[in-house]
Amino acid sequence: MRRLRRAHGLHEREFLEQFSLDTLKMVGTLRLGGHMFGLVQTKDGLVHRVTAGNHIGQAEGKITDITPAKISLIEIVPDSLGGYMERPAALALNE
Questions:
Q1: What is the 3-state secondary structure (H, E, C) of 58-88?
Q2: 29: Cβ–Cβ under 8 A, 6 or more apart, which residues?
Q3: What's the pTM value of the predicted model, to 2 decimals?
Q4: What pLDDT does 82 receive?
Q5: 3-state class of 95 per DSSP?
Q6: What is the CATH number of domain 3-92?
Q7: Rounded to the nearest 5°, which phi and psi values hold at 6?
Q8: Is 55:49 a contact under the CB 8 Å cutoff?
Q9: H-helix or E-strand containing 1?
Q10: Chain-centre distance of CA 12, in angstroms?
Q11: 30-77, pLDDT tens digit by residue?
């Protein structure tokens, strides 16, 4: 985990950042034109398409990779020293 002085916060907030990561569910993937997309379902049952570079969850989670089995991301969370650190997280496909 890398230690940071402050949270990134330099991007325009995306729709799925309003949801806690534990309320989001990976429900599949979609390949279009050689590009992989993840399919993420919110509690209300709506499915959203995401790709690497998108942000999800309330901890500035930036998607780094999408495979048929999981969506990998890096979150920015407070550390115990008054700064921030990167923390890996993932949404796994539950079959």
A1: CCCEEEEEECCCEEEEEEEEECCCCCEEEEE
A2: 36, 37, 38, 39, 66, 67, 68, 93
A3: 0.88
A4: 87
A5: coil
A6: 2.30.30.830
A7: -150, 165
A8: no
A9: none
A10: 15
A11: 999 999 999 999 999 999 999 999 999 999 999 999 999 999 999 999
Q: Distance between CA 33 and CA 35 in Å, rounded?
A: 5
Tell me the HSE value of 46 on the side-chain side, using a 13 A CA sphere: 7
- What are the b/e assignments for 1-23, b being 16+ CB within 10 Å? eeeeeeeeeeeeeeebbebebee
Domain boundaries, the chain: 3-92
Burial 29-66 (b: 16+ CB within 10 A, else e): beeeeeeebbbbbeeeeeebebebebbbbebbbbbeeb
Output the six-digit token pair for 8: 């990134």
Q: 70 forms bridges with which residues in the sheet?
A: 92
DSSP 2-69: -EESS----SPPPGGGGS-GGG-EEEEEEEETTEEEEEEE-TTS-EEEE-TT-EETTTTEEEEEE-SS
